[in-house]
Amino acid sequence: MTRTLLNKFNQYAFKISSNTVILSLREGYIALIPFFIVASLITLINQWLNISMKGVEHQFLEDFNVLVWGIFPVLTLMSFSYYLSKNLKVHSIASPILVFTCFTATTGYITISDGDLAINHRMGALYSLLMPVVCCYFLSYLERLRVFRLVGVSSISLFLRKHLNLILPYLIVTSVVLLLFPYIDLAAEAIVEVLKALNPHWNVFEKLSMQLIISHLLWFIGVHGDNTYQLLVSSELTGYYVLPDLISYNFFTGFVILGGTGCLWGLIVAAMFLKNGQHEKRIAAISSPLALFNISEVMIYALPIVFNPYILLPFLLCPLVNASIAYFAFYSGFVSVEYADEIPWFTPIFVNGWLLTESVKGIVLQVGLVLINALIYFPFLKANRDNNLSGKALDVLMKRYTAGRLIEEGAEGSFSETQRKEQINAHSLKEVTEALNQGALTLFYQPKINPYNKQVVGFEALLRLTNKDKTVSGPWFLETLEQHNLLHIIDNYVIDQLEIDLEQFAKHGLKPKISFNISPQNLLTGGYRRIIKAFAKFPGQVEVELLESSYIEDFNKTVTIVDALKKNKIDCAMDDFGTGYSCLSVLSKLNIETIKLDRSLLPEQLNSKSISLYTNLSEMISKLGFKLVAEGVETTDEEKVVKQSHIECVQGFLYFKAMPIEEAIYLYMTKGDSVHTDNTAKDKGEPVEE
To answer: Which residue, among 28, 14, 84, 21, has the nearest Cα to 426 in the 3D structure?
Structure first.
């Protein structure tokens, strides 16, 4: 029963996490993290100056602080609108402009008095989330209707046509919003009046619970909960005495919201003890310096806590637990209040506890509350790590949604049509991430054999994954990583590991020639520089196998890269020749040394025509001066065809499967081609490390 409920919860949690609006909102807030940090620091400095340096002129900083937080709703609006419009395949510049226009025209955020513009930053706080959803979805719907297109197929540019066709949808959205939102505003005002009319004679627990739950629920949906709560309810529900000598402000800042909204220090401690929670630990480490001054925005938006169903319960529970325990600690006399004035909200934890109580007991109470919060957060944080998309997987999912297959390159992907496929890819990426975290990448080496004397003439480095149970599997995850543009991470590992392994061969006095693959995209976008840096010190030992897509995508650039590698004594081979669009004309233009004949060219059942094609193709390539490698030789009949074609280098299961570095070293020491073995030490009579 419990397992069934957990599975159901995970399914719904994933749907929430991968929802278009939620992903867009997260991206929008993450993009604003630098603003949150800078704005918080400005506020912090300004508050300290107000307290400790009265008389020192810093009005400019005061004004700047007011302005920075005054434009916060607009920044939220624009950032959220931008990412939501990209997700919905709506113009990502025109759409935010439309949202901003409707927002300022309807919410009272910008007012006009005697011809002057003024900003009321508290007005429209909730609309900064609602307005983008209404405008972007409505505009997206209208854009798809042909009846509203002013220009069809014509001689004008596609860019101009696209923007001309926005005129009628723009007009309709603006008109509907201007007509609709006054009624929505009236309804919102009525709700606010009801909230403000709530019984101001509630007892302390009712006031505490109302304030904590509503403000944290608002934070959970991305709204500044404390400010919005004060805007929504009467002053009797925000400023009151918890005990005769303890005002609610000091009670909250000193013994409830420890580290900021959601009792952040408990979450930070829990994250530090979370095994394999690299993402959570990094965010906690980044958040800690700001949490020292009770600034919690980084953790809220980067973990994220916003719209994260796994964190909602402890996010609401911890403040309530702290309030209950702290209240009874003061009520019972365990600690007492010694300071009646307000202590600034940014006063660090333990300092504020000491100032309020002038006793070690106040600090002990805070330590106990943080540990209790950590215990509450820990199982939920663990569930979030195990089941939710976080860290890089979440980043990639968001980027894949926002720009489709052309990530942030200016072309907007067809999100709505590929949403289901993207969610499947996201699951695959999570599985890949888990497999790589639990297992270990390694390089195996498949020997290349001279079929006539059976000597080992080199190796091909192949990627393998050693699983948690010590079994070894092939790189089944490469396709998923390629879909998410993450192959460069694997390429970098292969290059680094091969460099280390070549040094291991060298320690045994061996210099085998080793080939390896690199993703075409990485090669063409600068990966060849990393190859040169790693292997220029192994002249003639390394061969880069070029996939067909490398030279098809950008032939001229491939020629330049091959020449650069050649200059640094790094050879190149054409991999899988005979598949796809490989053609002989390419061979005359690429400065490569080796051609690898794909296994698909090997004759089946000794078909005479296939044998003739294979032998003649081999002869022609050899006459052009290329070395040949026959791939995938698995039977003696196939070996006969290879020998008949006068190919002197083969690889395949007939001889050896890929093996770990230790076995490859031993094999090359016993069956290696003497041409590739460093006999210098032996010739000089020096000891060779075995």
So the answer is: 14
% pLDDT > 70, the chain: 80
Cis, bond preceding 451 (omega within 30 deg of 0): no
Measured between its terminal Cα atoms, the distance across the chain in Å is: 60
Contact 38, 297 (CB under 8 A): no
User: Please, are residues 137 and 234 in contact by the beta-carbon 8 Å criterion?
Assistant: no
Instruction: Tell me how far apart the alpha carbons of residues 387 and 7 are, in angstroms, rounded to a whole number.
Output: 10
* Residue 32 near residue 331, CB atoms below 8 Å: no
Q: Which amino acid is at 583?
A: C
Q: Residue 572: helix, strand or coil by DSSP?
A: strand
Q: From residue 276, how far is each of 270, 382, 393 by CA, in Å?
A: 12, 10, 15
615: pLDDT strictly greater than 60: yes
State the Cα–Cα distance between residues 493 and 70, nearest whole angstrom: 47
Tell me how far apart the alpha carbons of residues 582 and 243 are, in angstroms, rounded to a whole number: 82
The mean pLDDT value of the chain amounts to: 78
Q: Write down the number of H helices and E strands in the chain.
A: 31, 13
DSSP string of 350-386, one letter each residue = THHHHHHHSSHHHHHHHHHHHHHHHHHHHHHHHHHHH
pLDDT computed for residue 249 by the predictor:
86
Cα distance between residue 369 and residue 357, in whole Å: 16
Q: The dihedral of CA 84, 89, 94, 95: what is its sign?
A: negative
DSSP string, 205-263: HHHHHHHHHHHHHHHHTTS-HHHHHHHHS-GGGTS-EEETTEEHHHHHHHHTSTTSTTT
Angle in degrees, CA 52, 58, 62, rounded to 5: 95
Nearest to 520 by CA among 558, 565, 464, 563: 558
Q: What are phi and psi of 567, to 5 degrees?
A: -60, -30
Q: Which two tokens stand for residue 47?
A: 């508050």
Contact 591, 561 (CB under 8 A): no
Query: Residue 492 pLDDT more than 90?
Result: no
Quote the CA–CA distance of 659 and 655 in Å, as a whole number: 12
Q: Using alpha carbons, select from 590, 595, 656 the residue that is nearest to residue 630.
A: 595
Round to whole Å and give the CA distance between 631 and 130.
Answer: 60
pLDDT band at residue 12 under the 50/70/90 scheme: low
Band the pLDDT of 9: cuts 50, 70, 90. low
In contact, 491 and 525? CB cutoff 8 Å:
no
Residue 268 token pair: 């930070």
Q: Please give the sequence-ordered ranges of beta strands (E in DSSP) within 437-495, or none if there are none.
A: 440-449, 456-466, 472-473
Q: What is the DSSP letter of 523?
A: I
The position carrying tokens 């001689």 is 155
**Cβ atoms within 10 Å, residue 55:** 4
Give me the pLDDT at residue 256, please.
Answer: 92
| Residue 347 near residue 295, CB atoms below 8 Å | no
pLDDT, position 458: 93
Q: Which two tokens stand for residue 454?
A: 């059976």
Q: What is the pLDDT of residue 619?
A: 86
Q: Where are the beta strands (DSSP E) in 85-157?
A: 110-113, 116-119
260 vs 298: CA distance, rounded Å: 11
Q: Which of 261, 259, 255 is nearest to 222 (CA)?
A: 261
Residue 516 has pLDDT above 90, yes or no: yes
Which structure tokens are listed for 305?
């806590």
Whole-angstrom distance, CA of residue 81 vs CA of residue 87 = 10
Contact 350, 366 (CB under 8 A): yes
Per-residue tokens: 550: 């490398």
> Hey, what long-range contacts does 113-118 have (CB within 8 A, 24 or more apart)?
none
CB atoms within 10 A of CB 506: 15
More confident residue, 185 or 454: 454
Digit-coded pLDDT (tens) for 77-89? 898 888 888 777 7
